[in-house]
Amino acid sequence: MIGNIISWCVFGLIAGALARFLTPGKDPMGCFGTVGLGVAGSFLGGAISHLLFGISNQGIQPAGFIGAVIGGVFVLLLLRHFAKKT
């Protein structure tokens, strides 16, 4: 159980950092925000792959690394869009 949580955090940190690197601009988030970005990107990437390709049986599930990075970029762009509105 603890090993799964640690691996999710490491996976989220790497995917979130890569998504932030691929999306230039200011993002005032720390390490925990980057982990959250990567994990949220993973779930969004899983949902997108399910909608486009019908890959999973359960609807929304964690995606692979590339899907997590693509989902992280989308989440980051959405965060920027809604942060400008407030």
From TrEMBL:
Belongs to the UPF0410 family. InterPro entries: Transgly_assoc. It is found in: Cell membrane. It comes from Bythopirellula polymerisocia. It comes from the Bacteria. Its main location: membrane. Keywords: Cell membrane, Membrane, Transmembrane, Transmembrane helix. This is Transglycosylase associated protein. One of its GO terms (cellular component) is plasma membrane. It is a multi-pass membrane protein. The chain crosses the membrane at residues 5-23, 30-53, 59-79.
